[in-house]
Amino acid sequence: MKKFVQIFTKLFMSHAPLILSLLGILLWLLAYFIYWFFPLHQARWVWLSVVVVLIFNGISLGEFVKTLAVKGYTDSMTGLPNKGFMYLRLNIDMEKYAKQEKEYSLAMIDIDRFKNINDTYGHLAGDKVIKEVAGILRKSVRASDEVIRWGGEEFAILLPETSEEGAANLIERIRNLMENHDFGPEIASQKVTFSAGVVSYKKLEEVKAKENRLTNNTDLIVNFSDQALYQAKKTRNTVWRFSQGIIA
Q: β-strands 154-160, 194-200: how paired?
């Protein structure tokens, strides 16, 4: 049932106008069927008018519903997908990559000392930093990757067909890029850095097999990447791979 809901949600978000238009046509066919059993004067023209109205309303309503759905899964500040979308996609991806036995990695990113930026330069300056960081992340990944606004000063990147090492190398390049980026006079050209935790799906499977865990893969990969991020935050401006181990 859960899988059906995920697939239906994904299809409806992408094809809402078409689905509702088809529904309008089906209603017209039903009305036309009734006409043959209950003939009315010039009823054919009435039903033709009905189908035109239903299709038009279906398209309009579909676009409206699609807009609401997109807004529900989009961060208003950065335009990036939000945490809700991330869980939706991760649930689908975890099942897909489990069957295909391909690499898949998740990176969690946290801007270092972001509270100090807000406290020193104000929330408008902080918002500008968030938007610029989002832009840098988006421009630094492939079209198949997904940058997520997790919330606050945290981001996540979904990296299909990418090993933990490959993901860590990519995030390290972005970290260097970020460290040397000029964020402008709003924060007195202060350097902005981030810490990141990376984990791969294969490492997830290794731990599950070793410890005989039955935890949902989506929850587990988020939890492990968060543990790696926590490790990176101890020294800041660092990328930490889950396979490096978690030190208490």
A: unpaired
Is 153 catalytic? The answer is yes
Domain boundary assignment for the chain: 1-72, 83-244
> Parallel, antiparallel, or unpaired: how do β-strands 194-200 and 239-241 relate?
parallel
Report pLDDT digits (tens) over 186-199: 898 889 999 999 99
Architecture of domain 83-244: 2-Layer Sandwich (3.30)
Catalytic residue (choose from 153, 164, 186, 205): 153
pLDDT of residue 2: 47
User: What is the value of pTM for the model shown?
Assistant: 0.73
- φ and ψ at residue 195, rounded to 5 degrees: -110, 150
Contact status, residue 238 vs residue 232, Cβ threshold 8 Å: yes
Q: Beta-strand (E) ranges in 52-192?
A: 104-111, 146-151, 154-160
Longest CA span, the chain: 82
Residues in a beta bridge with 198: 107, 241
> Cβ distance 56 to 94 under 8 Å?
no
Instruction: Report strand pairing: 194-200 vs 104-111.
Output: antiparallel
CA distances from 4 to 1, 11, 85, 130, 225 (A): 5, 11, 17, 35, 27
